[in-house]
Write a structure and sequence with these properties.
The protein has six helices and five strands; from the N terminus they run αβααββββααα. It is an alpha/beta fold. A five-stranded mixed beta sheet has the order 1-4-5-3-2. Helix 1 packs across helix 4. The longest helix has 15 residues. The radius of gyration is 14 Å and the shape is globular. The mean pLDDT is about 95.
Length: about 150
C-alpha cells in the first residue's frame, strides 16, 4: 500500500526538515512545488488555505508526530499528485474532527486531485502509511529522497 503512495508523490515535491512557524507557509511551499512540477494551477494554494480554514485536516495520531492532509477541489488541479513535507518543529493545524482543537503537526501530505472519486483511494493510501508509527518515524528521520522511498516501499 505504501509503495502505491510513493507512486503518487513527486520526488520534486518532497521537502525534508522544513523550518517554519505556520501551516500557511508549509502549504504554500508544497503547493509551489506542485505548481512548478505542473500538477496544479495558480489558484491551488489559496484554495487549499481557504478549505483548510473551514474544513481542517489536522489528524492527531496519538504518536509523537501528528499528520495533516490538506487538499482542495479538483478545479484547481491539472493532474493528480502528492507533495510531502517533514517539519523541523511542529506547526498548528486544526483537528479535522474538532476544528476548535489545535493539533501540532510534524508531517504534511498535500494532495492534488482532479477526480473526487480518487480522493478516497489516495486518503486510504496515506492512512495505511500513517497508521504505522515505524513509517512515520522513518519519514521524520529521512534525510534524502532515497530514505523516503525506502520507508514507503
Amino acid at each position: 500500500m505504501a509503495e502505491a503512495l510513493m507512486n503518487h508523490i513527486d520526488p520534486e515535491a518532497i521537502v525534508l526538515g522544513v523550518d517554519t512557524d505556520s501551516r500557511e507557509a508549509v502549504i504554500r511551499l508544497l503547493a509551489g512545488k506542485l505548481k512548478d512540477a505542473g500538477y496544479v494551477k495558480d489558484s491551488f494554494a489559496d484554495a487549499v488555505l481557504a478549505r483548510e480554514a473551514t474544513m481542517p485536516t489536522g489528524l492527531p495520531l496519538g504518536h509523537a508526530v501528528n499528520v495533516a492532509v490538506p487538499h482542495t477541489d479538483p478545479e484547481h488541479v491539472v493532474k493528480p499528485g502528492i507533495a510531502l513535507a517533514t517539519l523541523k518543529k511542529p506547526v498548528t493545524f486544526a483537528n479535522m474532527e474538532d476544528p476548535d482543537e489545535a493539533v501540532e503537526v510534524g508531517l504534511v501530505f498535500l494532495m492534488a486531485l482532479n477526480d473526487k472519486d480518487r480522493q478516497i483511494e489516495m486518503l486510504q493510501e496515506i492512512m495505511a502509511t500513517i497508521q504505522s508509527e515505524e513509517a512515520i518515524s522513518g519519514l521524520m528521520q529521512a534525510s534524502s529522497l532515497d530514505d523516503v522511498a525506502a520507508v514507503l516501499k
